[in-house]
Amino acid sequence: FPDELGLSVPLTEEEQKALLYKPLEGEWGSRTRDQECERIIRSIDQLCTLDVAAPFELPVDLQAYPTYCTVVAYVTDLSTIRQRLQNRFYRRMSSLMWEVRYIEHNAQTFNEPGAFIVKTAKFVSDLMLQFI
């Protein structure tokens, strides 16, 4: 019990680890989640060296595009996905794939149909999905 009313009792490291989600067999393919996350992080790093990925590497600049957050409901980018992979945020590979698809979805939502940025977003998303 806590020493004072209203305070909490800290979790031990063991208790915290026991509460974390443990992926089921097959949720990350034939490898472990850790192996797959590290592999995909390396692919994002390689992708970000290409000019085509530059618009999707970091969060959209809200100073340049102030209405972006009012139009796009679920904001994401390659650096956010990379950070989430590092933190083992995704429970399943399908969740990661869903978020990667949102790069293209957001570009389609915010920009004119057929715009170069929309085509570029599709290319980047498809490339990531192929690698995953």
From TrEMBL:
<dbReference type="InterPro" id="IPR052060">
    <property type="entry name" value="Bromo_WD_repeat"/>
</dbReference>
<keyword id="KW-0103">Bromodomain</keyword>
<feature type="domain" description="Bromo">
    <location>
        <begin position="48"/>
        <end position="118"/>
    </location>
</feature>
<dbReference type="InterPro" id="IPR036427">
    <property type="entry name" value="Bromodomain-like_sf"/>
</dbReference>
<protein>
    <recommendedName>
        <fullName>Bromo domain-containing protein</fullName>
    </recommendedName>
</protein>
<dbReference type="Pfam" id="PF00439">
    <property type="entry name" value="Bromodomain"/>
</dbReference>
<dbReference type="InterPro" id="IPR001487">
    <property type="entry name" value="Bromodomain"/>
</dbReference>
